């Protein structure tokens, strides 16, 4: 049986993903080797083929109709990257909780982030700042799709991501595993003056509505990003990047 796969479309997203794996062990025999599939050539696609070949990515020319069928008729401009993908489940969440969770672990929980562009941008930040796990609720959340993959430049396939049926329950489980839960809220205390320590769970809600009541009540602390603009909140993906940077800075990640 063929392993589950996802298709990264968009020239820039493919390029970014290939660049990300370029330093990994090369060779088409590696178990997670992606495949670059193309149906036509152009200078840009030829450059991608050269880059992919140097990174040890498998390369295959296919008919345009096959490409259309594989990506569900989505936009692909004649080239896609087929990437083996492991879908994580509640069982993986339980496994994470029962493992030796690192002392500086960072978990990102999203409540009501339904825009796939926002989810993709958040996952890109999660990848950049080494988030150990992203938790999504099974309802009121965007799902991993082509838009998310494109917006995240393929980073969505690198970040461990689980979907849970009950987010407040999951936050309670994370607390039992020794995590402190910080929820982003415009009515919270300034993150600058908030003590951040130990294993951290950062919770972000939807723009406008923010976190749901039960999720908010599950947080140990509510924090906000000090700002001087006339709009009362940042885009959720921007907030994720700022807060994840601040958390990792407090943990000493950027110490010289």
Structural shape: elongated
User: What is the level-2 CATH architecture name of the largest domain?
Assistant: 3-Layer(aba) Sandwich
Overall CATH class of the largest domain: Alpha Beta
Question: What is the CATH fold-level name of the largest domain?
Answer: Alpha/beta knot
Overview of the structural elements:
This protein has two domains: 5-84, 2-Layer Sandwich (60s Ribosomal Protein L30, Chain: A); 90-250, 3-Layer(aba) Sandwich (Alpha/beta knot), CATH 3.40.1280.10. It has nine helices and ten strands. It has helices at residues 11-21, 43-54, 64-70, 90-98, 116-128, 146-151, 167-176, 213-217, 236-250; strands at 5-8, 35-38, 58-61, 79-84, 106-111, 133-137, 161-164, 179-190, 199-205, 221-224. The protein has a six-stranded parallel β-sheet, sandwiched between helices. The chain has a four-stranded mixed β-sheet with strand order 1-4-2-3, with helices on both faces. Strand 6, helix 6 and strand 7 (161-164) form a beta-alpha-beta unit. The longest helix is centred in the last third of the chain and has 15 residues, at 236-250.
């Amino acid at each position: 049986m063929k392993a589950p796969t996802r298709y990264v479309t968009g020239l820039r997203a493919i390029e970014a993903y290939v660049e990300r794996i370029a330093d990994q062990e090369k060779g088409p025999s590696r178990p997670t080797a992606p495949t670059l599939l193309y149906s036509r050539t152009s200078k840009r696609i030829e450059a991608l083929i050269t880059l992919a070949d140097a990174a040890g990515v498998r390369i295959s020319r296919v008919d345009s109709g096959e490409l259309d069928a594989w990506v569900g008729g989505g936009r692909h401009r004649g080239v896609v990257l087929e990437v083996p993908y492991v879908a994580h489940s509640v069982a993986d969440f339980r496994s994470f909780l029962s493992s030796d969770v690192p002392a500086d672990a960072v978990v990102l929980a999203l409540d009501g982030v339904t825009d796939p562009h926002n989810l993709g941008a958040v996952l890109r930040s999660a990848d950049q700042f080494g988030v150990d796990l992203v938790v999504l609720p099974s309802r009121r959340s965007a799902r991993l799709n082509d838009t998310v993959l494109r917006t995240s430049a393929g980073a969505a396939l690198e970040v461990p991501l689980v979907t849970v049926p009950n987010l407040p329950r999951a936050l309670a489980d994370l607390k039992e595993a020794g995590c402190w839960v910080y929820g982003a809220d415009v009515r919270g205390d300034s993150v600058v003056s908030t003590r951040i320590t130990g294993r951290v769970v950062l919770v972000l809600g939807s723009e406008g509505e923010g976190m749901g009541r039960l999720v908010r009540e599950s947080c140990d602390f509510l924090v906000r990003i000090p700002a001087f603009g006339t709009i009362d909140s940042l885009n959720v993906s921007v907030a994720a990047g700022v807060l994840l940077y601040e958390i990792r800075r407090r943990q000493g990640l950027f110490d010289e």
